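> example.struct
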């Protein structure tokens, strides 16, 4: 938690802003990596803040404008989303090319090791990228100068041990500090008396352990959360949620929609669905009626290996059998050149609207992602931002509130 979300981000932003300590024998005017200064820093911070409507509610607290709030208790989740989610797109064209490419290697490597399940191929790729990042970091920033030696903090060297520790102990999400931080917060909230705080804390911890032990022995003690009145349990932790259409109707222009199976285009629309990871995806059928500044967009989905904008869910007959599907507008393939230059950290895709409508099984949707516009003013190019630590929230049973999310 502290290495990725706080230590590295503090170092990199300090270098790019030129706020890191400068040796008396050094000259900041020779630092060609300093890019986030004056109006550039202000404009960049504004662009970060403007991504808030595009971040789903499941992304927790969206990053505030760093130009205004970076010194006002900027949270670890804000740093994660800002530096490892939005950064590769928003810093492209601001950082000099060699520094941007080096930074993207860190982002890609961190994304790979920040998973609950990691393949051997992904481990090899992550280790290679992190080694290259550290090596290039020393070449680009340290430059073997005594006056730059304070740039090489412990957090840089620690990156070389991330993958070996995953091999030795397992994925880091299982022993990350997030769990301890949450436990400390939960126990602290239960202390009501100011006297003997440590004795009270020990008593609350013991009480919680006893409750957990009882729940393990008798799972029925844990009350099960019921489903909303307007819902449909699809199995495997997929649940359709309202709004919904009570009566089916014919789908206009059904012949122009890509469907691989023979079907009857009489449909019954649903607006939302809860995924097994606790996220709730919301179709544009209802969400597009909300003003941009009043919504946390939840209609962009990951349908491996594609990304798409969800229009709505519906139930219809396929070969005489009722199935639940999703109408989606599939984004174009990612820009191959940018994908290669960024070491696959930045996926830039074209939004194609009604020209790329497809019908997919609802259970093909794996997660909800953010797709902010790549350029300002916005055009049809969008980039992918996935939630860091989504697997951690899934392990903890965290579910997104099924009410509509507003800012």
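> example.seq
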């Amino acid at each position: 938690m502290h290495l990725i979300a706080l230590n590295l981000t503090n170092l990199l932003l300090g270098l790019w802003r030129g706020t890191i300590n400068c040796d008396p024998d050094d000259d900041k005017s020779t630092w060609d990596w300093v890019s986030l200064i004056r109006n550039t820093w202000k404009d960049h911070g504004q662009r970060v803040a403007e991504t808030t409507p595009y971040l789903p509610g499941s992304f927790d607290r969206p990053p505030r404008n760093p130009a205004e709030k970076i010194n006002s208790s900027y949270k670890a989740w804000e740093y994660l989303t800002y530096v490892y989610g939005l950064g590769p797109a928003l810093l492209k064209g601001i950082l000099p090319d060699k520094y941007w490419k080096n930074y993207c290697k860190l982002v890609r490597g961190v994304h790979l090791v920040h998973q609950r399940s990691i393949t051997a191929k992904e481990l090899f790729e992550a280790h290679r990228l992190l080694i290259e990042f550290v090596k290039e970091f020393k070449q680009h920033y340290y430059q073997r100068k005594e006056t730059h030696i304070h740039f090489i903090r412990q957090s840089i060297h620690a990156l070389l041990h991330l993958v070996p520790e995953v091999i030795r102990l397992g994925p880091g999400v299982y022993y990350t500090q997030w769990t301890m931080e949450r436990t400390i917060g939960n126990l602290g909230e239960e202390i009501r008396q100011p006297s003997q705080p440590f004795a009270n804390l020990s008593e609350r911890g013991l009480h919680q352990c006893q409750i957990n032990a009882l729940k393990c022995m008798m799972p029925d003690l844990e009350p099960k959360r019921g489903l909303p009145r307007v819902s449909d349990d699809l199995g495997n932790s997929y649940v359709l949620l309202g709004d919904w259409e009570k009566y089916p109707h014919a789908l206009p222009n059904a012949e122009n929609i890509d469907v691989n199976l023979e079907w009857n285009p009489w449909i019954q629309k649903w607006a939302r669905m809860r995924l097994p990871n606790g996220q709730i995806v919301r179709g544009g059928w209802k969400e597009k009626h909300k003003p941009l500044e009043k919504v946390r967009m939840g209609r962009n989905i990951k349908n491996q290996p594609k990304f798409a904008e969800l229009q709505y869910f519906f139930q219809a007959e396929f070969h005489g059998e009722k199935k639940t599907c999703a109408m989606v507008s599939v984004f174009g393939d990612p820009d191959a050149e940018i994908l290669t230059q960024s070491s696959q950290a930045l996926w830039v895709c074209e939004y194609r609207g009604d020209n790329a409508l497809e019908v997919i099984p609802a259970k093909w949707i794996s997660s909800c992602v953010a797709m902010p516009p790549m350029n300002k003013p916005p055009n049809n190019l969008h980039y992918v931002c996935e939630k860091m630590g989504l697997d951690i929230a899934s392990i903890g049973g965290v579910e997104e509130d099924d009410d509509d999310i507003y800012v």
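> remarks
The CA atoms of residues 218 and 368 lie 34 Å apart.
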